[in-house]
Amino acid sequence: MEDNTHLNKLVEKLGLKKASELSHAEESTKNGQNQTENATRPSSPQTAMETASLLQKLRERLGTQVESTSSIHPELENMHNEPRQNLIGGTVIGNEDSQCLYFSETYPDPFSYGDVILSDALHFSVHEARLISAGNETSEFDLDKALFIDTETTSCFGGTGTVAFLVGIGFFVGNDFHLEQFFMRDYDDEPALLEALDERIKTASMLIGYNSKCFDFPLLRNRYLMNRLPFNGETLFHFDLMHVARRFWKRRLSDCSLSTVERYILHIRRYGDIPGSVIPQLWLNYIQTGKTQPIPRILEHNRRDILSLAGLMAWLAQRVQVPRGQGFEELLDRCALIRLQMKCEQYAEAADIAEDLLQQTEYFPIRTECWKMLSDAYKKLGKMEERVQSLIHWAEEEKESVIPRIELAKFYEHQQRQLEQALYWTEQAIKIEPHNSNHLKRKERLHRKIKWTADFDYPNE
Amino acid sequence: MNIAQIIDQLQGNISFKQNLTTWKVIPAEPAQYEDFPEGMDERLIEALAHQGIHRLYTHQADAIKSVSRGENLCIVTPTASGKTLCYNLPVLQAILDNPNSRALYLFPTKALSQDQVHEIKELSETLQLGIKTYTFDGDTPTTARQAIRSAGQIVVTNPDMLHTGILPHHTIWIHLFENLKYIVIDEIHYYRGVLGSHLANIIRRLKRITSFYGSNPQYICCSATIANPKELAEKLIGEPVTLIDRNGAPRGEKHFLFYNPPVIDRELGIRKSSTKEATRIASQLISKDVQTIIFARSRLQVEIVTTYLKDMARRMNISEHRVCGYRGGYLPTERRAIEEGVRKGEILSVVSTNALELGIDIGSLDACIMVGYSGSISSTWQQAGRAGRRQGTSLVILVSSSSPLDQYIINHPEYFFEQNAESATMDPNNLYILTSHLKCAAFELPFTECESFGIDEHSTQAILEFLQEQRILHKVKGQWHWSVESYPAQDISLRTAAPGNVVILDTQNQGRVIGEVDYFSAPSEIFENAIYMHQSETYTIEHLDLEDRKAYAHSVETDYYTDAELKVDLGVLNISEKVGEPLHSRIWGELKVTWLPTVYKKIKFGTHENVGWGEIHLPEQTMHTLGYWMELSEELIKEAKVPKENLSDALVSLVNVLRQVVPVQVLCDPSDIRAHALLRAPVSQKPTLFLYERYPGGVGFSEKIFHQHYDIILAGLSLLESCPCRNGCPSCVGPAVEVGSQGKQHALQLAKILTQTREQICSIIKTDKV
After folding, report:
1. Which of A357, A452, B52, B760 has the fewest CB atoms in 10 Å of its CB?
2. Chain-centre distance of CA B296, in angstroms?
3. Interface touch A5/B573, C-beta < 8 Å
4. Are the CB atoms for B659 and B702 separated by under 8 Å?
5. Read out DSSP for B409-421?
6. pLDDT per residue over B128-161, tens digit each?
C-alpha cells in the first residue's frame, strides 16, 4: 500500500519532521499499516476518548507508535542520572530552584589577538567613540565598565519562543580581559542563567555587542519578561559594533557579518569553527538526545565572538588616535573616517585628510568623494576662496561631472552675484545634461536677471 | 420623485407587475429609545449630542448595561442600526475612566478595519481627547509600529495579523496586553467553517497571553442575522455570552419584490436575460434620481451591468461618473473613493459583487436590485439591508436568472420568507487546526502539566505528549517548551488565499496598473485575447505571465466580452482507508482536482449572442485535497430500482443531499465541502459519489465523513423523507429542473437500500449472538 505519500503530506502539514528522521520509524510504519485496516469509529465528538483515538490515528499514520519516550530515544534513559556537566565541564551555579553552567577564563595582558593587543581597546576616549558613532551621543562611553556580550539562541527568527541558551560576556579588570559564559543544560536552567547575567549587568554601565540592538538585547528583554525576573539592562548605554562596522566597511567588504569583519580586518582565521547557523539545531539535539559532543565547540565559537568584539574595539582604538587618519592603512577606511568627521562637524580635520588623500590616490571614486567633502568642509569653515578653488579643480578633473559646475553656478549666482560667471558654469552643466529641466530653468532665470540688471542698471551689491 | 411615489407608480404598472411572483411589504418599525444608562461619562454624552444623538436605541442601551455587568456579549442587529456604538461607547467610557485602558478590535478584512478607524476617529475628535486609534496590519509602516504598540489605546487588526504578527511577539505588546479591557470581534458570521476553527484557536492563544499579563478582557461580538449567533460566539470565545437582539433602531417600510423576467420563447422556455432586465429596472431608478445598489453574481457581471448603466446614464444626460462598479480587484484607493462617493450621494448607482455585503460603510441607499439569487438566505437579507434609511420607504427587487435554483426561489417566495437564516457551523476542536495552533501557543508560552487548551485537560496533555514524541516540544520539570528552530505561525495560513495576485498592466500607458485578479481566477478571466473590463473600460489581454504574476493589456473598443469555459476533473491520488460495506464501499483519501479553461466565447453586448470563440492555451490548475467517496455496485442499483437512464440524476440528487447534511455532522461550513457525482469513476469504473474539501491539503473533514458514513446517509434519508417538496428543492436534492423530476424519488430509493442492507446485517449479527 502506498501509505507513504499520504504520511509525508500529513507530516508536512503538521510541520513535523519526516518520519524517516525519527528512530524506529520503519518498524512502526509497518505496524500502522496493519492497524489501519480495522480502524475503529470514534464516538461522540470532543471527548477525551475521541482525541485519544484520533491521536492514536495520527501516530499510526506518522509511523510513531505509542512507546515510552525512553524506548524511542534510549540515550535519554540515563540522561538525568549522570550529571551532564561532567561531559561539558564548567561549574554549576544558581539556587535550589534553578541552576546553570558557568565557565570563565582570563586573558592576561598583553594578550594578542590577530593584529591587536586586546587592552588597546581601553585607550578609547569618549571623543573618539563619538567620532566612530557618527556623532551620536556617547557621553556614557566607558570601556572600564563595559560588558561585551554575545548570545547563542534556539533560532534566528526571534519571537517569544526563542531562547538564549548561552550568553557570553567579556570585560576588562585592569588590563586583563575576563570572559564568562552562562550555559543552559535544559530549559529549566534559564532563570539561573538570567539571574547570574543580571548580577554582571548591574555592575556594568555599558553594553557592547554585534547587531545586539536589533537581536540580542530585545531577545534578552523578552526572556526576563517571560520569566518575570528583574532586568537591569534597560538603563545601560548600548554600543552596537555592527553599526560602526557598516560605517567603515560597507563599501569594502561583501557583507558586514562579524566573521567577515574578523577575517578581513583583524586577519583572524578560525579553524574547526562551527558555522553560527547550525548552532540552534545542535543545542536542540543535545537537549533531546543528551549528545554533549558539539557543546564544547559551541562554547568555543561564542568565546571567539566575544574576543573578536574586544579585538575590533582595540583595532579601532589603535587607529583613530593617530593624527590625520594616518592610522588607517586602507585609503577607503580613511575616506570613511572623513565622512564620520563631517558628521561630527570636525571640518578642519576632514579637510586636512581629504587634501592628503587627493595627493595620494588616483583612484577615481575616492577622489570624487574627497572633492565633494573637501568643498563642503571649506563651505562649513567659511573658506570661500578655498572652496571655489577646490570646485574648479574638481570640475577640471572631471569633465563629465555636473555637481561641481552647478555648485559653482549657485555660488556665483547667490553669493558673489557674478551672473555671467554663474551663466558660464550653468551652460557647462547643460552641455553634460542637455535635458535637465533644473539647469534649463537656472539658465533662463540667469538670462532674465542679466537683462534686468542691464535694463535698469540695477546696482550690483 | 421620491421612492414612495415610484412604488405607487410601479403598483399601477401592469406590464411590470405581471412578472412579479411576490410583492411583500415589510412594515415600518418605530424607534425604541432608552435614556443613557447611569454612570455614562458626561463628556461622552456631550459628544454624542454634538452628533445629534440624545438617546440610545434599546439594543445600544442593552449592550452598554450588559458590558457594565461584566458579561461577554453578542449583538445581532441589521445593517445600519447603529451597531458600532454598542461597542465604541463602552470602550471609550473605559478609556475616559482610565487612559491606560486598551481595546483590541478584530475585523475579518483590512478594508473593514480601515473603515472602522475612520468612524472611531470621528467620535473621538468630537471628544477632543485625542484617543489614539490605530490600524495594525500588513500595510502599517515599520516606523509607526513602535508607537502603536506602546501608545495605541484602540488597536484595530485582523485575525491573520494577530496570528502571525502580534501573539508570537506578545512581549513587545506588553502595554496592550497588561491593560486589555475589551476585545471586539465584528462580523462574526464571517467566521464559519475552517476560518472559524482557526479564529477560535487564535482566541484560545490570546487568552493564555492575557492571563499571563494578568488581564481578563471582556468580549463584544457582533453578527449579522444568522440562525445561531449566540452559539457561534460562544464557540469562538469559549465562554458564555449574552445575546443582544432587541433591535431598537427604526426601520422604514420595505417593499421586497420578486421579479421573474418574462418568457420570450415559450417552446424552449427561454426567459429574458436577468442582467438586461435588472439593468432596465435600474436605469429607470437612475432616471428618477433614486440612489440604488445593484448586486451582481460575478465580477464579470458587475462590469457588464456597469457598462450598460453608464451607457444609459449618458443617454439620459446624467454624468456617467455617477455610475460605478465595485468589486475585488479594484485598487484600494479606488475603492475608498467609490465608498465615499456613495456615502456623500455623489454616486447615484453602484454595481457590486458581494464585496459590499460586509459592513463597509457606504450609508444607506433607497433601492437595491439583486441580479440573481445569492444562494444563501442570510446574505440575501444582508444585501437587501443595504437599502432602507431609518425613515422612509425602500425598495428591494430580486431579479431571478433562469438557473434552476433561482427559478425555484422566485416561484416559492414562501421558502425564502419563512425560512430561518442559515446557521454558521464550525468546529473549534478540529484536530488538525487545533494541533497547529497548540504549536503556536507553545511557542508563545510554555505549557504546564495542568493546562488545557479549549479541550479537556487530558486531551490537551495527550496532544502535547504527541508533539513531544515528534520532538517539536521538549518537556522538562513539568513544562513543555517549543524546541524547533522554526517559527510556527508562519507556516499556518488561515485562508486559502492564493499565492499573490496577478496585476494587469496597461501597455499603452507606461505599464500603469489597471487592476488585479487572484491567482486561481487568472486563467479563466485574463487569458490571452480575453476582454478585461474595468469600470466598463474594455481592454484586451495581450499576454498572461502567470509565473511573474503579470498580465499585459491595452485598451480597445469592442462590442463583445469574453466568457471562458472551465473543465473540472477529479482523480484519486491515494487511498487512505477503504471499507467494503454491503453492496457498496466507503473510502477516504487524497484527491487531485483540476481546472482547465478550454475555450472562450465572445458574447455581444446588448444582444448577448455568441459571435465567436477561441481556444485557451494555459496549463491546468490543480489542487490536492482530501476527499471521501462512495462506490456503488451494480446490485445496489438494481435493488434500488433506478433505471439506467435516470442513474445520473439520481446520483447527483443523492450527493446533493449528503452535502446538505454533512456540515451539521462534521461541523464545517457548506462552502468548505464540494460535491461531485460520476456515473463511471476512472479506474473503478463504478458509479461514485464524491465529497471533497475545498482547502488545499484538506483539514480532515473527509476522514470524519468516512467514519460517520451511516450517520450521514441516515441524516440524508430523514431529510429526504421530511422535506415537504414534491420533486426536489434547494434544501434537499436541488431543484427538479436540475436533477430531473425523478431525482428525489430515486435518491430516496438509493439511500434506503444503502442503510437497509446494513440493518439486515446488524440483525443477522444480533441473532448470531443470541
Report:
1. B52
2. 15
3. yes
4. no
5. HHH-HHHHHHSPP
6. 777 888 888 877 888 889 889 988 999 999 999 9
